[in-house]
């Protein structure tokens, strides 16, 4: 007969492993408030970049994040395209924890703070799901076009860009029904609503190269404006309703600033190769460059480069440390 104490010890080891396997420690930092976290596309890792000293601490991950969204200061929700889980990142407790089970294939997350709802886009199944975070369950599902990759919320509407089929879908958040959709430019990427127009960039038709962002009427789908910004614009953002519009283009490694009223180009600068993601914090912009292996800090108003940090192996998604302030 096997030793019962050995059996008990083995069972305890399994239980303890199960309790801790879903929690990952963030990189250790001396001052979390001055840290920006960088996920990578060329390796499964997360780097804590100290903006005050330039020092870096890295931890290996078993996956690569596909999307992140801030829930509240210091609390980030993250998805992994190849996994059936959502992860909660807590920069104050320095942990990454498995939050709940979902379907595989999430490309984009959007958080409705007022209603504590999380919207998820699935590239493979071409649908949008609504998750009640308190109950940790899916409460609504809506079918959209092929390969939905981006979404934004405006009041009672959610705009979804279906990059595969080249369409924008508009969903009513009261009924969770698609009210209408319309076609946009070919091979679209990037999505923004400035309160008046839906803005979309992208790579352009096969055999052509796009250098413009396009403004569409959200009701009729009519193309209203086309503004030349940079080669293959992939991200279009505003820091606030009153701020300029920023366009990140990975084809010519540029960042363009548009006037929010006239939509004219105010300034355009070059950053490191293949810029892929941009966030804002305080008066600064932060840009990650996938092939340039760099995180660039810029002044929001002047677009002057404040600092350039070398971060190896494809820096991608960015989020602020500490309590997010």
What would you say this structure looks like, in words?
With 325 residues, the chain is mainly beta. The protein is 5% helix and 53% strand. It has one helix and 29 strands. It has one helix at residues 4-20; strands spanning 23-25, 35-40, 45-50, 56-60, 67-72, 75-79, 85-90, 95-101, 106-112, 117-122, 127-132, 137-143, 148-154, 157-162, 167-172, 177-183, 188-193, 198-202, 212-216, 223-228, 233-238, 245-249, 254-258, 265-270, 275-281, 284-289, 294-299, 305-310, 315-320. A five-stranded antiparallel β-sheet has the order 1-8-7-6-5, with no helix packed on it. The radius of gyration is 21 Å and the shape is globular. The N and C termini lie far apart (60 Å). Residues 1-21 have low confidence and may be disordered.
The percentage helix is under 10%
Most strands sheet: 5 strands, antiparallel
Overall pLDDT confidence: 91
Number of helices: 1
Strand order of the largest sheet: 1-8-7-6-5
What's the helix-strand series?
HEEEEEEEEEEEEEEEEEEEEEEEEEEEEE
Strand content: over 45%
In angstroms, what is the radius of gyration?
A: 21 Å
- State the low-pLDDT regions, or none: 1-21
Tell me, briefly, the overall form.
globular
The structure class reads: mainly beta
Q: What's the number of extended β-strand segments? A: 29
Spatial gap, N to C terminus: 60 Å
Characteristic key phrases:
325 residues; mainly beta; five-stranded antiparallel sheet; four-stranded antiparallel sheet; 53% strand; disordered N terminus
């Amino acid at each position: 007969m096997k030793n019962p104490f050995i059996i008990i010890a083995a069972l305890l080891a399994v239980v303890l492993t199960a309790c801790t396997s879903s929690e990952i420690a963030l990189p250790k930092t001396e001052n979390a408030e001055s840290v920006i976290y960088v996920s990578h596309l060329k390796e499964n890792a997360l780097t804590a970049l100290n903006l005050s000293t330039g020092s870096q601490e890295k931890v290996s991950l078993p996956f690569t994040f596909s999307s992140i969204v801030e829930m509240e200061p210091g609390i980030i929700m993250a998805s992994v395209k190849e996994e059936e889980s959502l992860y909660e990142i807590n920069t104050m407790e320095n942990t990454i924890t498995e939050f709940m089970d979902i379907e595989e294939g999430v490309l984009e997350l959007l958080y409705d703070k007022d209603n504590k709802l999380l919207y998820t886009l699935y590239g493979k199944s071409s649908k949008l799901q609504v998750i009640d975070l308190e109950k940790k369950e899916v409460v609504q599902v809506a079918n959209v076009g092929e390969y939905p990759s981006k979404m934004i919320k405006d009041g009672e509407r959610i705009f979804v860009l279906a990059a595969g089929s080249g369409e924008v879908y508009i969903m009513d958040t009261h009924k969770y029904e698609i009210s209408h959709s319309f076609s946009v430019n070919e091979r679209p990427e990037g999505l923004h609503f400035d309160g008046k127009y839906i803005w979309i960039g992208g790579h352009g038709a096969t055999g052509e190269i796009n250098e413009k962002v396009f403004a569409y009427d959200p009701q009729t789908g009519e193309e209203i404006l086309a503004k030349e910004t940079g080669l293959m614009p992939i991200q279009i953002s505003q820091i606030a309703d009153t701020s300029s519009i920023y366009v990140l283009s990975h084809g010519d490694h540029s960042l363009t600033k548009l006037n929010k009223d006239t939509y004219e180009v105010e300034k355009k600068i070059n950053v490191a190769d293949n810029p892929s993601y941009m966030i804002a914090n305080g008066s600064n912009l932060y840009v990650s460059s996938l092939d340039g292996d760099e995180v660039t800090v810029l002044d929001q108003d002047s677009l002057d480069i404040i600092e350039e940090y070398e971060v190896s192996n494809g820096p991608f998604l960015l989020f602020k440390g500490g309590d997010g302030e």
